[in-house]
Amino acid sequence: MTISTHRRGWLQAGLASAAALVLGACDRITNNPKGIGFLASAEGLTRRVQRLVIDRKALAREFKPADISPDFRPNGSIDPTDPDYVALRDKGFADYRLVVDGLVERPLSLSLAELRALPSRTQITRHDCVEGWSSIGKWTGARLGSLLDQAGLKKNARYIVFHCGDTLEQTLDGSGQYYESIDLIDAYHPQTILAYAMNDGALPVAHGAPLRLRVERQLGYKHAKYVMRVEAVADYAHLGRGKGGFWEDRGYEWYAGI
Ligand SMILES: Nc1nc2c(c(=O)[nH]1)N[C@H]1C(S)=C(S)[C@@H](COP(=O)(O)O)O[C@H]1N2
Ligand SMILES: [Mo]
After folding, report:
1. What is the pTM of this model?
2. Which of 34, 54, 153, 165 could join 157 via S-S bond, C-beta 3.0 to 4.6 A?
């Protein structure tokens, strides 16, 4: 598994949607002898790639307080029984530390108070689960980009991995522990936060207490709950079953952009 495979993956996805966009102009292009040539030219390719990259930086839609779902649906792990997690929870997460390590200049270990002191963001967004339901919630958390800048990413860092405190599937080799990974475009997206509050209260256990990822341009399974450790890596092939996340290891797409 290489970076270029993933790059190619999302580039191809982008080119496919760029191609769909120009379908409307198809008649004009095919009637124009230069049309097809232009689409295949390096200049045309560069423009479409630029549009794709700009699109990935666009903000997800934000909603009004009145839009907040009264019963935001919890999904997947909702009450982890892993002994380490239970011990933290039973002390109200007083001993919780978020570890930031891997390809960083300054590894960090931060308490919730220290996380709350980081530059934060509050947003009301819609969560879309791949199973076909959506809920709208208000989230407050530390901006992941600020956290990563504080740790200082090394040049060869390409992905950010979130190691979670819950085991979703019991396996002999430990590959049932939830984890996720995102690229640096999503990591530095302004709406990407490590949320410690939901709907103006402390983040409930069912929704990932004490800390969960909000990565608003991605489907629900990318939003890692119960985040214990943030690791910067060059590649994720050595983690879990090698596909970059718990659900990716079980067949879901690594890039789940919305
Ligand atoms: N650690 C962990 N994170 C997780 C999951 C999980 O089971 N464990 N489920 C994922 C899925 S599929 C969804 S839709 C969302 C659900 O978030 P919610 O419980 O706040 O609705 O969390 C995602 N993150
Ligand atoms: Mo989901």
Report:
1. 0.84
2. 153
